[in-house]
Structure formats: structure tokens, C-alpha cells
Amino acid sequence: MSDHVTVTIDGRKLEVPAGELLIEAAQEHGTYIPRFCWHPRMKPVGMCRMCLVELETPRGPAIVTACTTPVSDGMVVHTRNETVQRMQEGVLEFLLINHPLDCPVCDRGGECPLQDHVMAYGPGESRFVEEKRHFEKPIPISELVLLDRERCILCARCTRFSEEISGDPLIEFTDRGNGVHIATFPDLPFSSYFSGNTVQICPVGALTATAYRFRARPWDLEAVESTCMHCTAGDRINLQASHNEVVRILGVDVEPTNQGWLSDRCRFGFQYVGSPDRLTVPLIRDAEQGHTEVTWSEALDLAATRIGEVLAGSGGQSVAVLGGARLTNEDAYALSKFARVVLGTNHVDAQMDDGLDPQFLAATVDRALISDLDSAKAILVWGPDLKEEHPTLYLRVRRAAQELGAALVVVHPRRTGLDDRATHKLTYRPGEGADLLTELVAGSGRASQARQALAEGPVVGLVGRTGYGEDPRLAEAVAAFVRTLPDARILPLARRANIYGALDMGLAPTLLPGRVSVGGEGARSIAEAWGGLAEHPGLDTRGILEAAAAGDIEVLFLVGADPLRDVPDGALARRALERVPFVVAIDQFLTDSSRLADVVFCADGFAEKEGTVTNLEGRVQKVNRIVPGPGQTRPDWSILDDLARRLGVELGFGSAEAISKEIADVAPAYRGVTWDRLDWEERDGIVVPDGGEAPLRFVPADTPGTRAGGDLVLHLARVMYDDGVTVRHSPSLAGLAPGAAVHLHPDDAARLGLASAETARVVTEQGEATLPIRLDDTLHRGVVYVPFNQPGMPPLGPGPAVTVTPA
Amino acid sequence: MTDQLRVITRRMVEHPADSHTLARYEATGGYRQARRALDMGRDELVELVKESGLLGRGGAAFPAGLKWSFLAPARPAYLVVNADESEPGTFKDRQLLERDPHQLVEGMIIAAVANEVHHAFVYVRGEYPKPARRLQRAVDEAYTAGYLGEGIFGSDYDLEVTVHLGAGAYICGEETALINSLEGRRGEPRLKPPYFPAAKGLYMMPTIVNNVETVSNLPHILEMGPEAYKALGHEADTGSFLFSVSGHVNRPGNYELPHGLTWRELIYDVAGGIRDGNELKTWIPGGASAPWFVPSDHLDLPITKDATAKAGSMLGSGAVVVMDDTTCVVRAAERIVRFFAHESCGQCTPCREGTTWLEMILRRIESGAGREVDVDLLLEVGGNISVGLAWPPRMTTICPLGPSAVSPIISITKYFKDEVLAHIHGNGCPLRGAQR
User: In this structure, what CATH number is given to the domain that contains residue A757?
Assistant: First the structure.
């Protein structure tokens, strides 16, 4: 056992892995050594001195910190002898002399490591009769986090997190000795996308979150493990509620996905669940009075009648379904079956014109696991700015490059969050990606060094669209290139909630559940199971909207979909929705789009229902219910089931769990995935096999590239905080959207006569807006960057041709 | 009267007007040893310094040659001269920097060659603007003369020297905190292990950190040879030693002496005895961190590293602080503890919280608000920083700063408990009025 050593801990001889830290080795064998500053996901600093232990050495007993001492063979350790106990009491007494004993009003009270350690290891009383240290408190260090410097025990967890993990060191110790405290830099708030993690790992109540502060006592909380649905990484969360209201989300440390970390969007973006603006009763709209509240029966009857008329007249080809990415797999499956069987249509799309081929997202072969990043020698990110769209994936890539030595090549039209850790960064004009790819493939020109960095495997390629101005086929061509690299695996990137689950359930015009192709071999058995399938070729979101705008769609379902906001060409979406005679919305809020719906069904949402979701690896995990939906909301599957019955079809849905069993029967990739296994033995999820019936093997399209005619090209891309419905209705986050603006390279601004202008007129084929100018010298020349869906911004459309003139 | 030695202080004593200039330095034999060192190479130089028995002069008295031999093989390696002399009562490096900076530069060249260093740094205490200016001028002169920079002395050896001024933090005299500070980080000591400078020092590369006085000795060791150098000293304490004597003596100052004389000789002969005919009450033998000595127990002890350690204290960096019988020991201890509390970097809980707490208790006793239990409390709080109040300290902290603050506590409760209790029972200092 050369990789193991023998140590004696408190008289017990143990075999432990060589090189492991004493604090970990002891814990794995049942000896908990108290600690504050040590955190398993960060480097040890040995500052708090709580984990002091005594070693027997040839030169007599030695005092060491267990968090900084690797085990070595023959080591004899005492963790609870008299010396150690005295030191533990000493450290705790020291920590308490200046710590306010305001536990009754402290968020941490009841789940506070300091409290617990004092109980277990501390002295019974304090001998400190002097005045405690005072600071002004609490001070907001960002919009989301408040700092109480009197409670702080200076463990450096938060500062280390911001430096080692999130890479935005905006908080630091200042002053010295007894006056040391955490501070932000002058005029620079702690505006990290990951600030909430510091609140979670703070061992006292020094850092508190505006969203949770004074909202609950920990012992009153109900909690359940679940999966975040803000982005597609499948981050494990602990969902906590008090009095039927979600009050807090904590990250769960699981190795395959988020390793305990969450973005602030995930952590604080639960507030929309309890928003007073939630829909609580069904609505129908009439021309004079707008929306009025009705009973479920009235709403369902009206919808069934109108749909029945259309189906009887024009058939399923004039019915379309948009959305579904916000649903669980079970609800998505129900919607897929409802569309194909009841509505008889293949005009179904959960991707809101995000542009990528559903086969690319769902059926990529050689699909990577997130954990493959840890062992990668090289990583290529050619897609969205991970920090904005896939925040926890950004942390994992950052760690791989910063701590694990992976080469990192980032390709994007402007600065990304990973640039400071990228070994190679290439910028380019959207539309000219194919030229750059040609160079990268050949290892020529400005891509030659980046190509060399990718020469040694294993390589992981994270591939998606950099923005809406980019030709969607480019991602497939990039993926094809990645597949030529040694030991390469690919993570296809799309950000929309449960989009991978929705596609796997067939919410795409070309796909049926289990990545079976419409019209393909496997479709026959699904048709058999379902008792029939729509046959006509389906339209994608853009096709549906264009058909609707042309008057060819008579019934449009919006399922958690707000095309006016969600699709890049919002103007087209408005023309479409205004033209469709009958719009049915299943939603949680009245959005710009569902305001135009004739019937609005109120649905249960996240935290209100049980089910499964699938992340970008193909990992299926549970989401769980912790609160009831407001008012009369119902799960989507049950709304569809009722509607189907009124239309004369029995879908046979009894419960979400029953649907999950049907999925396992019908969808080949999901065989064997059951709630039971996910609840018990596979809590980290089950990765379904990659590929599909017609796996995308990446035959790259011939030099894709829709080059814009003019000299400027639009780069329309998402940022973390926008005017989407979940952010807008989460008060903690709503104010964080950066706002509408047009970003120009200073040289371009000068050329356009905008060097000192404050606003500019931005015009595309699909829209126009007057926007404040921000100069950004990280932009590739000729690229005009506009963040997508910011509050108060009219839809600009995807471009890519754009003109920018003085306002 | 004990004769002083004239080794590293010879030039400044014999040529007080211009001992800091290159002209004077070279006229008195300077830079010959640096040239010789270039022909010797690492192994020979390390062996030579080992043979000389040179002990580090920064306080820990670690054998300098041994330290050099620990240098890890990775390159580049760095040399950092610790000129952050900040211990209360210590003022020897200041004179070496101010009055014989070329001696240091030549020592640095020798140390650099011995450790295959091509970039050396001097970290000068922030409150030493004049010494820093003098040193910078000397470095500039050496560059102009071709003794530093590319191809020094016409050889193919390159050596850059950077003089860096600190920002006023005692903790930056701790070698790993100094390295952090030099890198632009907070001046906080690093964990040892793994960050032993000889393995992972400046910019995580092998680094030798030597004190100004240590390095200033190198040209002399080369010049006179290790045997002659050893013969200057006393047994294990080789060479000469700079004592900074301050406090209530008639002739405070820096004295270059061999080890081995007694404290009585140092205080009464060398430093001229106690001022105003007062009685000697106590003295600190080796800087503010060291436990105190008292006349009844220690006056006739020989001043050697071993004898001092055996008596429960240390010679440290040679700062001897003498206190006469007008001194209130509570106030003196409070002043020292306050220094350490103020200079704590704040990393380790026991040091950050404990030193300030000790200061508060002492201030309370001094002001007359002490309680009987405070004597035990001082010792127990001290015991939570320095386990068992042992010497050398068993630290609950990363570096020795916190335990240093416990030394005066141990000293006053051991030798002057009655005086401490008199403060408590008499509502304040019994010596009030006697002090000056």
C-alpha cells in the first residue's frame, strides 16, 4: 500500500491516503477536527487556528494546524488531549471576545459553526470584561450582500473564494492586527455574479443576503434537495421554505456538477416563485374588457371548443406550440405527446429561435461530462461568454485553467469572463467565424499558437453560439473540428433552463422522445405506443412565427414562452401573435406575450412540482416540490390531460411519476431512469447515453457564414441579468440588469463621429433603437455589441447587418 | 573596559566623513572579495561560510552556510536582504546601511554568487529613508562602476539589485511576510511548511533571506578566512556581534563585540553603567520579544547564545534594553505588548485577539482598575498564545509575533509580581512620581 500511510489518531491506527491533509483523513475516519477557515474546495490558509492538534515528534510534541499538515507514515496525532482542548477553548474564547452575542437576531443563529463549536469545544464562559470592538454595521457591499464586520471572525473564506474560485477579487482584508476587517475597494462594490457563495460559506453571520435576511429561523425551515433550472448546468441546490414560501437556496456540494457553488442568479432568482404577480386563476380575454378571471372549466371548455373547430377545419398543420424549456421532463413529455397526438402537429419548438440544430444539442456523440474539464489538457471555448450564460461551468473551466494547468483557448467577439485565465484568446467578427475556424484548423495565421495549445489531449470543446449575429451552423463546424483533436469530447452549449430535457422529450420539430427522429426508424414504436403521430414536416420557432405572421397558423400554444421577449426578432413575434386568431398560454405570469393570449392557464412552476430535468451533459436529476403553487395553479401535464379529454383523447396521465415511467418505456435513451433511483442511489443524477437515433456526426456545412454587407456587424448576446420573466419578478435581481446600451470599439466610435457622443441610433433590418454608447476596446473592430433583452429596450432583431449613426 | 572589535564597523569609525562612498570603500580594500567570489563558485563559498560558523544576525541565529545549502535546485533563485529592522531597541542595521552600504553591496555580490542568484533585493524598513537613500546611492555607484548589472567586474555574471522601501510594518521583518510584501501582497507570514523560502520563496522560487549584518560580514570572512573569523568570536558564537544598547545607561549605542563577556561588563563597562547613579532593575537581553533578565539572577552570565537560551531568553538581534529602578514594569510591559498588538498582521486568531486583550488588561492594571484575578488571567491568555508559557515558545500561531507579546507578561509576573499586585491593591502605579 505505497499510496497509503499509517497514522495514529487519538490512539487509533488508521490507513489513510498519502499526502491527504490531516483534517480530511481524520474526518473520513470519524474524527472531526473543528475548523473555521478550512474549506474543502479552497486552499488551506491555517489562519483561524481552530484545528490545532498535537503531533508526537522525535523532538517532542509539536503543535500544528490539521488543515495544513499532510499525513505522513507513522504520524501520531492527538486531537483531544488536554493541550489540544485548552488550545481549542483558547481560540474560541478569543473569537468570542469581540463577537457580538446577537445570535437571536442573526441569520446564522441555529446553524452557526461558531455557535456549534463553542457548544462542543468552547469554554463555558468569557473572562473578557473590556469593551468589544465596534464597527459601523451592517454595510451593504453590493446590491445583494451586507457585511457585519463585528461578527466577522476573519477566516478569509470569502476573500479566498473571490480570488481562487470566482476570479473577481473585489473583497480583501484591510488594516492590521485587531483592526483587520473585510472591505471592498473604494468605489468598487462587490458586484460579483457569485457573491452569494460567500454568504453560504461564511462560518458566522458576517455576510448576509438581502434576499434572506431576517426572513426565517433555520430551525423553522423546510428543506428539500433539487436542481437549479436557471441555466443548463444542472446545479444541485437545497431548496428551503418557511410558511409555504421559498426563502433560500443553498448550493449542494456534488462532484459532477456545481461542487457547492451557485451563481447569484440561481441563488436569489427564486423570488419570482412567490411573486404577488403570479397568475392564480385561469383568464380569458374578450375584446372589450381584456382579461377576466374564470373557472378552470370555463377556460378549458373555451379552449377545447376553439381548438376542436380549427382541428376539424384546417387540421394540425395550422396549430403550433412554442416553448417548454421551463418544464420538467415529465411536463415536456406530456406537451410533446399532446402536440403530436391531440393537436396532430409537428410545429413544436422549445428553442426560442436560439438557432442551434436540436440534433446538435441533444444527440451529440462524444459528449463530455463537466468533470472531464478537471482532467483536460486543453479546453476550447467557442461559444457564449460562460460567465454570463453558464456561470458554474465558468467556475469549473476557470479552475481547470487556473489550478489544474489546462491550456485554455477562448474564441469570442469581445472580452469574456475567462480571458484573464485564457492561454490564447481570439476575437473575430460574427459572420467571419468560418475564416477564423479555417485558420484554426490549419494552425495558420493568428490561430497558429492556439492550434498548438489544442494539440495535446484530452481536449474538451465547449461549443455554442457566441451571439445571435453568428451563423448557427458555425457551432457544428467548430464541433467537427474539435472531434479531430486528440481524445476530444464536446459539451454543446445552450442556456435555456431545461432545454436539453425538452429536446429529449421531443419538443423540436424534428425530434420525438428519446432523440428519435420524426419519420425515423424509432418513430414507429412511439406511434404504436401513442396511437398515432403527426406526419407533416414541422416548423421551428422562426418558421412558426413567420407562418403565423402570414396567417397560416390558427391556434398557437405558448407554454412558458414569451416570444416577444425571448426571440431575437421580437417585431416578428409581435406580428405573429397579433395575427393568430386563437392564442393559448400556459404560464406563471402575464408576460408581454401572454397578455395577447385568448386563454391563459395558470401553471405550477419551479419548486412547486416534482419531476426530472436533464442538463447539458445529458444528466437526469430530480427537481422537487417544497411549496404549493399559488391559488388555483395546476401542473402542466394535468392541464394538457384535461384539455385532451375535452378534445376526445385520453392521454392516460395519472401523475408526474406515472409519466416518468412512460418516458422510461417510450424513450430509448431514458430506459431505466426512475424517480426511485434518482431519489436514493443516484442522487447525483443518471447520465443518459449520448447520441441518438440519428446522431449528429458533424459533417460541417460548407464554410458557413452569413456575412453582413456593411462594415459593421451586430453582436447580440445574453448577459446574466436581463429583463426575462424570472429576473424581472425577483426583486433582488431585477435592478442588476446593466441596461440597454450599444458597445463600440473606440476606433469605430471615432470613425462614426461618435467619439464624444452619449447616445447613438442603432438600426438593423428588424428594428431600431436609440441607445447609450459604451466604449469597449475589447471588441473586435467593426463589431457592435448590444446585450440582449435589457429593460426598456425595443427588439433589435439578430442583425447581423447594422448601422450606427449619431442620435 | 572590554575592547571593542573593529570588523564591520572599522570603516565607519576610522573614516566617519565618507565611509559610505565608493571611493573610500575601495581605498580601504573594498570589492576585492567580491571579485574573488566570482572565481570560487557556489560549492566553495557555501563550504567557506559553513566553516566560518557565521550565524544569522536577524534574531534566530540560524547557521548561514547551512541555510544556503538548503537552497532548492529550481532557478531563478533570489536573494533578499532583510533590512526591515523594526524590533524596538534594535538599530544596528541602520548604521550599517547608512555608513557602510558598499560593505553590504559587496556582501550581496558574494551571497548572490554563492546561491546562483541574478536578482537580489533589499527590503528596507519604511521608516529608514536616509539609510535607504544611502544604500540606493551605493547601488547606483556600483552599477556605474560595473560592479552590478550585466557582466559584473567584467565577468559574464549578471546581477541586478533592487532596493525596496517597506511601508511601516514590523511584521514585514518576518521573512515570509517580507516576501509577500515584496510581491505586492499583504505583509502576512506564510505557512511553514510548505513555504520555506529556500524552497518556495519570492515568486514561489528558491530564495535566500539574510539579514543586513549577516551579509555585511561576508567580505570579512572571505578576506580573513574562516579560521581567523571564528577566532574573533567565542566558541560557537563566531565572529563579532553588534549590540544595540539602549535605555537607562550612560552610554547607549551600537557596540561591536565578541560574545562571551558578561552582562555586567556590557552594561557597566561598555555602556557606562546606569544613569544618575540609579540601580539596575531589569533588562531585555535580545529585543522586545525576549524574556527579561534581572540583576539577582543574570548579571554575571556570559553573553552567549547557549547560556542565554539556557537562562530562558535569547540574544535575538542584539538589542539590549536597560531599565533602571524608576521604571514601572507594568507600564514597560504594556508598552511592549501594545507594540506587538499594533504590529500583529491579524491573521491568526490568538495573536490578533490575544495581544490586544493582554494590552487592555495591562492598561487596566496600570490605571488602577486591575483585579486580583487579572494576574492569572494575563498568564492564561498568554498561555493560549504560547502554550505552557515555555521558552522557546510553543506557538499557537503561524509566526512568533504573538508569542513575543507574552514574554514581558511572563517576565513581570515572574520577577515583579509584588509590583504588579501593588498596582492592583493601591489603585495604580506605586512608582508614580518617581518616573522620569
Answer: 2.40.40.20
Best interface-test mutation with A: which of B204, B339, B349 has the largest number of A CBs within 10 A? B349
Does any domain span residue A723? yes
* A457 and A541 belong to one structural domain: no
Tell whether A756 is covered by a domain: yes
Identify the closest residue of chain B to A172 by CA–CA distance.
B186
Q: Best interface-test mutation with B: which of A129, A131, A172 has the largest number of B CBs within 10 A?
A: A129
- Residue A24's domain comprises 4-80
Same domain? For A347 and A440 the reply is no
Task: Give all strands of the β-sheet with B241-247 in edge-to-edge order.
Answer: B253-257, B241-247, B319-324, B280-284
Per-residue pLDDT for A351 more than 70? yes
Residues A376 and A441 occupy one common structural domain: yes
Specify whether A522 is located in the same domain as A660. yes
Nearest CA to CA, how far is A95 from chain B (Å)?
7
Per-residue CA distances from A164 to A22, A170, A250, A267, A399 (Å): 22, 12, 20, 20, 8
- Which of B174, B387, B399, B404 has the most A C-beta neighbours within 10 Å, making it the best mutation to test the interface with A? B387
pLDDT of A663 reads: 96
H-state helical runs in B167-317: 175-182, 212-232, 263-264, 295-298, 305-310
Query: Is there a domain that residue A328 lies in?
Result: yes
Q: Is A462 exposed, middle or buried (0-12, 13-18, 19+ CB in 10 A)?
A: buried
pLDDT (average), residues A317-337 = 97
**How close, in Å, is residue A87 to chain B by CA atoms?**
6
Residue A160 lies in a domain: no
Single-letter code of the amino acid located at A151:
R
User: What residue has cell string 489546462?
Assistant: A406
**Is residue A479 domain-shared with residue A542, that is, in the same domain?**
no
Tell me: pLDDT of A363 over 90.
no
Can you list the domains of chain B with their CATH numbers?
Answer: 3-231 (3.40.50.11540), 240-324 (3.10.20.600), 329-434 (1.20.1440.230)
Q: Does A127 touch chain B (CB under 8 A)?
A: yes
Count structural domains, chain A: 4
Per-residue pLDDT tens for B31-56?
Answer: 999 999 999 989 999 999 999 999 99
> Which residues fall within 8 angstroms of residue A325, CB to CB, at 6 or more apart?
A350, A351, A352, A496, A497, A498, A499, A502, A507, A560
Strands (E), A185-332: 207-209, 222-227, 236-242, 245-251, 283-286, 290-293, 319-323
Cβ A49–B348 below 8 Å, yes or no? yes
Per-residue pLDDT at B436 exceeds 50: no
| Residues A515 and A662 occupy one common structural domain | yes
Boundary residue ending a domain (A80, A108, A132): A80
Whole-number pLDDT of residue A792: 86
Contact B357 A50 (CB under 8 A): no
Of A492, A508, A538, which closes a domain? A492
Check residue A696 and give its pLDDT. Answer: 61
Would you say A357 and A698 are in contact if contact means Cβ atoms under 8 Å apart?
no
Q: What is the ipTM of this complex?
A: 0.95
Closest Cβ–Cβ partner in B347, B348, B387 for A83? B387
Tell me if A94 and B357 make a contact (CB, 8 A cut-off). yes
Partners of residue A179 in chain B, C-beta under 8 Å: 346
Residue A288 sits at the chain B interface (C-beta within 8 Å): no
CATH code where residue A550 lies: 3.40.50.740
Minimum-distance CB partner of A94 among B341, B354, B394: B354
pTM of the model: 0.94
Of the pLDDT bands very low, low, confident and very high (cuts 50, 70, 90), residue A470 is: confident
How close A114 gets to chain B, by Cα (Å)? 13
Q: Which residues of A touch B373 (CB under 8 A)?
A: 127
In 3D space, the residue among A387, A407, A2 whose CA is nearest the CA of residue A191 turns out to be A387
Are both A466 and A587 inside the same structural domain?
no
Q: Chains A and B: how many Cβ contacts under 8 Å?
A: 102
* Residue A699 pLDDT greater than 60, yes or no: no
